[in-house]
Hints:
This protein has 62 residues and is of the alpha+beta class. The chain has one helix spanning 45-61, and strands spanning 5-6, 19-23, 27-32, 41-44. It is 27% helix and 27% strand. The chain is globular and about 35 Å long. The relative contact order is 0.18. The mean pLDDT is 84.
Amino acid sequence: xxxxxxxSHSGPDDGNECVEIANSPTHVAVRDSKAPxxxxxxFPATAFAPFLEALKESxxxx
Length: 62
């Protein structure tokens, strides 16, 4: 997987939820920056945008 970077959706402070993402031509990987050695979620690149939209919709319903 490519270089990991903090998602623009993570907050700027250390206490916020921190998500890192890495892109390749075919996949997007997501991990918790506070526990990078733990599990990583990997999505086909074409499924990542719909996944984010579903999360946004879910958050609006809360």
